[in-house]
Task: inverse folding
């Protein structure tokens, strides 16, 4: 069965990474790009991890109390038995857990990610073929224009204007779709006359 792709606000809580090696570093780098607040626990830490700003570093072995209240936990200790112990603890406490190289112990998986500004695409094969996930990540990345993130930021800046001008929800959805299409075909920012024309679409459509 495929895993459902939740998109979480990682700034809503604290994450814990158990492990101080290269795998832990890769997880840290991915998560920080999404605003995560991270605690890293390991008796020994790579200098590259120690150099990352904003981390809470615990230079000691994992203790069960460290998982209390965490938004998620990643077990990357390089010790299979310890990782499984952490996974069992997290399952008992209903804390989402990802165990490196142990799909059966995970309650969530790391997808291959394509990110450009507010656009984020996650690709997962359920752990069956990471190489396939990377392949599709590369293919999808090639199809996304390089200025897509900035265009989406611009469209986001228009949301309140559209909400104020178009009270009806169904009509508003049509305007948002028209704005997106116009940005794709005509470029952005839109000319004032084009923006005003699109905002009038629901009114003109009722005539």
Result:
């Amino acid at each position: 069965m495929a895993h459902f792709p939740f998109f979480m606000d990682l700034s809503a809580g604290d994450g814990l990474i158990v492990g101080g090696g290269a795998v832990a570093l890769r997880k840290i780098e991915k998560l920080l790009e999404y605003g995560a607040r991270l605690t890293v626990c390991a008796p020994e830490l790579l200098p590259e991890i120690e150099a990352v700003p904003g981390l809470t570093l615990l230079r000691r072995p994992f203790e069960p109390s460290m998982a209390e209240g965490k938004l998620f936990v990643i077990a990357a200790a390089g010790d299979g038995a310890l990782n499984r112990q952490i996974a069992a603890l997290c399952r008992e406490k209903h804390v989402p857990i990802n165990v490196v190289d142990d799909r059966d112990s995970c309650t969530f998986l790391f997808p291959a990610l394509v990110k450009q500004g507010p656009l984020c695409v996650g690709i997962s094969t359920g752990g069956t073929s990471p190489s396939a996930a990377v392949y599709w990540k590369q293919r999808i990345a090639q199809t996304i224009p390089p200025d897509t993130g900035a265009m989406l930021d611009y469209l986001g800046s228009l949301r309140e204007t559209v909400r104020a001008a178009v009270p009806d929800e169904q009509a508003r959805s049509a305007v948002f779709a028209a704005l997106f299409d116009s940005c794709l075909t005509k470029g952005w920012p839109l000319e004032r006359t084009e923006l005003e024309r699109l905002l009038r679409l629901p009114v003109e459509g009722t005539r």
Observations:
- Residues 148-205 form one domain.
